[in-house]
Design brief:
Elements lengths: L6 E6 L7 H11 L3 E6 L9 H8 L15 H8 L2 E7 L1 H9 L5 H8 L4 E5 L3 H5 L1 H12 L3 E2 L3 E4 L5 E5 L3 H12 L9 E7 L3 E2 L5 E2 L6 H12 L3 E7 L9 E6 L2 H11 L5 E4 L6 E3 L17 E3 L3 H6 L6 E8 L3 H11 L4 E6 L10 E8 L4 E8 H16 L1
Parallel strand pairs: 1-2, 1-3, 3-4, 4-5, 8-11, 8-13, 11-12, 13-16, 16-17
Antiparallel strand pairs: 6-7, 9-10, 14-15, 17-18, 18-19
Helix pairs in contact: 1-2, 1-8, 3-5, 4-7, 9-13
Length: 394
């Protein structure tokens, strides 16, 4: 199906960012999409129906009982190939998660099984609130693609994560959803994520603070771009991810065994898992009593990337590094030492990356490219790394 035959419902929530969706609508029209705008009633306080009608060339309806003889919430739901909800406020996300149907937009969402992209925009405190976090997790578990809001200034002097993403980022995410950007079809991508744990005894272990969020973002992005994706998850609470084959591991040794078995069959390896540098020389079978817990004798874990590089054929290898200073120099040295094609070095000063939805650091490639990134979403970084992997694949 070509883009010109795709019918889009653009749902607009009642946030100040609604005005930015006017430009979003235009950019989507430039790509050949046919768009019906469905604002929530409150959204009309920010951008009026006449503006949406003038831009889209189509009538705008907000309530189920308007033109009721057309049974709009069913006919429009059946006609829509995709939904794009931008901006999605905390209230709108909550109503969708709860299955509410108290205006035309939420009726349409319930009546349709079309793929849906949700673009949140709200105050940072609202985005971080446990209720919103749970509601976003619920939507993702049901198959919705939910973008991460960007970090920056909002209304007034407030700043933080909650800003409406740039139009180009939304259009790219929507292209991924619709299949307009399926540049990894037939490419086999192997991703590691999380952090290994090296057992001291049955209770204690040596580990690290990696949450695995970057690896999940990479897996989601690769699947949307058409790749065949395998994820090796080290100590992560993830049971299923649409289109992704998942293998769970615990230690560096477990991770190595899984990698060596799968590496010959992949085209791209993304090593985002954090591997513990050392492990106890002896693992006790019984819990060590507190009074006897005085020292641990360590031995280094093998460098898995170095071992894999020695077995590399045509694979593109992407590595990660975590540094607090001298990012460029440290990353360039690791890129060379491990014979990588691409490396991303995280700036982990003060532990500000771990467990977060954003990241900052630098991408370096074997061909000399260097891209500094100042606090972008991990989803955005995932697509940037995949872009560079495609270039390396040729």
């Amino acid at each position: 199906m070509s883009a010109t035959s795709r019918e889009i419902v653009l749902g607009v929530g009642a946030g100040i960012a609604a005005y930015k969706s006017c430009d979003l609508l235009r950019r989507l029209q430039d790509r050949g999409y046919l768009i019906t705008v469905v604002p929530t009633p409150s959204a009309l306080n920010f951008v009026g129906a006449s503006t949406w009608e003038a831009l889209s060339g189509r009538a705008v309806t907000t309530q189920v009982w308007e033109n009721a003889h057309h049974v709009g919430h069913i006919s429009l739901a059946n006609r829509a190939d995709y939904f794009l909800i931008a901006p999605a406020t905390a209230d709108l996300i909550a109503r969708i998660a709860a299955g509410r149907a108290d205006d035309l937009l939420t009726n349409l969402i319930l009546a349709s099984d079309a793929p849906m992209l949700v673009v949140p925009a709200m105050h940072p405190a609202m985005w971080r609130d446990p209720a919103t976090v749970a509601n976003v997790a619920t939507l993702r578990s049901r198959g919705y693609v939910v973008m991460e809001p960007e970090v920056g200034r909002l209304t007034g002097s407030d700043s933080g994560q909650g800003r409406f993403p740039h139009t180009q980022s939304i259009v790219m995410a929507f292209d991924l959803l619709t299949g307009n950007l399926r540049d990894l079809v037939g490419v086999r991508v192997l991703i590691t994520a999380g952090g290994t744990r090296e057992a001291i005894d049955p209770v204690r272990f040596i580990g690290n603070r990696s949450s695995g969020k970057q690896g999940l973002a990479l897996a989601r992005a690769a699947v949307l771009r058409g790749a065949d994706v395998e994820l090796i998850a080290a100590n992560m609470q993830v049971d299923s991810l649409h289109g992704v084959e998942i293998t769970h591991v615990e230690s560096a040794n477990d991770l190595g065994q899984a990698l060596f078995a799968r590496f010959p069959h992949c085209d791209v390896l993304v090593m985002s898992a954090a591997v513990a540098d050392a492990r106890p020389r002896h693992q006790e079978r019984e819990k060590i009593k507190k009074s006897q817990f005085t020292s641990i004798e360590l031995e280094p874990n093998p460098d898995l990337l170095v071992k894999l590089s020695a077995r590399k054929a045509e694979q593109v290898m992407i590595g990660f590094a975590a540094e607090t200073n001298n990012l460029r120099e440290s990353a360039r040295a690791k890129l060379t030492a491990k014979d990588l094609d691409i490396i991303y070095v995280n700036d982990v000063s003060d532990g500000k990356i771990f467990g977060k939805d954003t990241t900052q650091g630098m991408i370096l490639t074997r061909h000399g490219a260097e891209i500094a990134l100042k606090e972008v979403s991990k989803d955005a970084l995932a697509n940037l790394l995949l872009d560079h992997a495609i270039r390396q694949l040729g």
